């Protein structure tokens, strides 16, 4: 093999390694007619690159049920129907990192803070996150629980990759 072919192969084998994290900010209680109606919190999504290869053109999609987003979502949210569950709607929010701002090793990109709401006594609300970059793909799922003392708790994990078809 020629030197340029070896360099090309080495370059192609190096891909970004993006890891997502989800944090919940301060929780406030919202009352209607003197009763606790729901809890409101800020959910922050961050991406971190653990590879020496910069992450260019990173694309992140956050999936959240219709009732989870607080207030009127901005124009960047896309409302759709979940084909897997009859009558269940999903908000999708895409984020794209600009080419001029790649995520370098150790670098963190904030995919924004989102106001969410949870009804006390409700079941856990599930959400998803799909992260793409050239040569890289990872899917996460999470759930937000309402603790008995009206605090919100998040559980977040990487999903097993789907087998190749």
Q: What would you say about this model in short?
A:
With 165 residues, the protein is mainly beta. It contains one helix and ten strands.
| Binned strand content | over 45%
The CATH architecture can be given as Sandwich
Q: Looking at the structure, what is the overall shape?
A: elongated
Ends distance: 32 Å
Strand order, sheet with most strands: 5-6-4-8-9-10
Largest sheet: 6 strands, antiparallel
Q: Tally of extended strands?
A: 10
Structural class estimated from helices and strands: mainly beta
Q: How are helices and strands ordered from N to C? A: HEEEEEEEEEE
Radius of gyration: 19 Å
Low-confidence stretches: none
* CATH class type: Mainly Beta
Domain tally: 1
CATH superfamily: Immunoglobulins
Number of helices: 1
The CATH topology annotation reads as: Immunoglobulin-like
Roughly how much helix do the residues carry, as a percent range? under 10%
Let me know the average pLDDT: 78
